[in-house]
Structure formats: structure tokens, C-alpha cells
Amino acid sequence: MNKRFSKTIPALLFASALVASLAACSTGGAGGGSAYPERAITIVAPSGAGGGWDKTARSVAKVLSETKLVEKSITVENKPGGGGAVFMAEYATADAKNDYKLFVNSPPILINHNKKEGNSPYGYKDTTPLAQLTKDFGAVVVGADSPYNDLPSLLDAIKADPTSITVAGGSAPGSMDHLIAVLPAFKYGIDPKQVKYVSYDGGGEAIAALLGGSADVIATDVSGVGEYLKAGKVKVLGISAPERLVGELGELKTFKEQGVEAEFLIWRGVFGPKEMSDGAKTYWSEKLKALSDNEAWKAELQANAWESDYKDAEAFAAFLAEQDKLVQELLSALGMSK
Fold first, then answer.
1. Any residues with CB less than 8 A from the CB of 303 and at least 6 apart, and which?
2. Residue 195's closest CA among 234, 151, 155, 145?
3. For the chain, what are the domain ranges?
4. Which CATH superfamily is domain 137-258 in?
5. How does pLDDT run across 258-306, given as a tens digit for each residue?
6. pLDDT value at residue 217
7. Among candidates 281, 282, 265, which has minimal Cα distance to 273?
8. Within 13 Å, how many C-alpha atoms sit on residue 131's CB side?
9. Quick check: bond before 37 cis, omega within 30?
10. Topology of domain 41-136+267-333, per CATH?
11. Where is the secretion signal located (predicted)?
């Protein structure tokens, strides 16, 4: 064999091994590459217990773990404050590269960024959208002993004396529950600023306020009141869906069929950090798609009165861009845009 050639072979092998080693190092990091995930994962619900974010995060974690779609342990954490704005400020800065912390969110990630009062400097562009999983709708809810049995009668009372009706929600003024509350009022000819709104950290606390007599009405997501409706503790005066739902909630009237031309979609999805590694993004794209197709997940949808509305990362990002424009238009119409 040629001596020069024989010396070249080991050198080439060494160089090849070095390149492979460097490539592996460059993708291993916080969570990329074929080794991801190497440790436990956290899914954050940026609210207190009992609301839509909390239930979504726990259902996702439960199905991923019980079906072994994800073999590493998954912990759900509640991070309440400002309708998700407090968590976003921390996440977008301290966890921008943390592949092991995901979170669930819905329209507030857009609303908080675009509203006039107490807006957040951070929005969906400070994250990596991974997948939309469900859609839900808003609901205007009163206690079982309330004198109001339909949406127009409640709105007439608010129009007559706005200070006499306390409306509660599980998010800050200008955030999602507040919009669900004031949108039908606005469409009914009521100045949205006149609606007496009190905020709580999560839908669970808002329902507790209603049942405890601290609020006359709550604005929330329809899926969060199913168990209270079955137990005869509340009445749903109207929902923000374009048409009636199917199944057990099919008797609930929409805003529109009561003469109030208002709709509001509550999508929910999973997000990662803005600088998420390619390996982690690919991993979660595959796992969340598999989750959406799994029978155990479909059972969770039914149990929580959620509708499946899966979008992959690319479609979800495009959808968010469209929704961001719609939220800006809605806030502007309500006089609440920044």
C-alpha cells in the first residue's frame, strides 16, 4: 500500500470521528438531539387550580404518561398571576432555552400583549408554538337561584344599573374572561367600561366566588362548568359558540340565538421556549400529534366537554398570526387596545 495513503486513512477516520462528536455535542445541550429528553419535564398552567389551563395541562400530562408516549416523568406546575402575564415575563427571559419546560395557553397570550391596561411586553412570538389541541367557548353563568334565566334579562339589568351586578372571571381586566363578559354587553349597547368586573386567579376561584355569593355572574369557559351544571348549582345563560354544542351541553343557548351577535373561540395549545432546540421541537411535534390521535386523549376530550381541534406547529403558528389580528380588532372595537 502507498505509505502516504496508509497515513491518510487514520487521519481521515480521526477527523470523521471528531466531526461526529462535535455534532452530537451541538445538539445535546439543553435538550436537543436524539437523546432528548434526558430528564423530567414540566408543563406549566399559568393559573391557579381548576381552570381550563390547569385541566388541559393535567390531561396532557396524564395521557402522555399513562400511554407511555413519554417515558420521562411529567410534572404539572401552577404559576398564577395576571392572567398568565406574570409567568410569561419569567418564561420569556429566564427559560428562553429551557427545552424541559412547556406551558399551555389560549387567547390570553394574545390579549395580554395587545390590551391597553396592564399589557404584557411578551406574546406568542416569544415562544415556540408546538400544537393546538382543543377548542372551547365562553359561557356566561349564574347561580342556580339567580333571578336571571336568559342572557337578555341579565343584560337588561346591567344596562339599567351597572353597579348592581358583579361579574367575575378567572383572568385580569382586559384578559379573556373579561372579554367574554363585556363582548355581549358591548353588542347589546352597553358601555363595556360600565360592567363591574372582578378578577380571580383562575376559573376555579371565579366559580367559588359565584357559589359563595361574592359574584352575581361569572364569565368563563363552558367546559369548566359542566360538573356544576350537572349538580344543579349553576345556570348557563349563554355560550359564545357559533351554534349549539353536541352531547350533554347541547341544550345551552348561544349568544346569537338570543339576539346578541357575539362569538368567541377559546383555543388551547402547547408552547415551548423561544429558542427551543430543533431536536426538542421535533420530539414534541411527534408526541403531540400522537397524543391527538390516542383513544385515551379522546376520552379526556369527552370527559371535559372539549372539542378536538389539532393543528401542528406550522399551522398553529399561522393560526396565531391570524388570531392576533382578530384580537387587536376586537380590543380596538371595545376601546381596550394599546
1. none
2. 155
3. 41-136+267-333, 137-258
4. Periplasmic binding protein-like II (3.40.190.10)
5. 999 999 999 999 999 999 999 999 999 999 999 999 999 999 998 888 9
6. 98
7. 281
8. 21
9. yes
10. D-Maltodextrin-Binding Protein; domain 2 (3.40.190)
11. 1-30
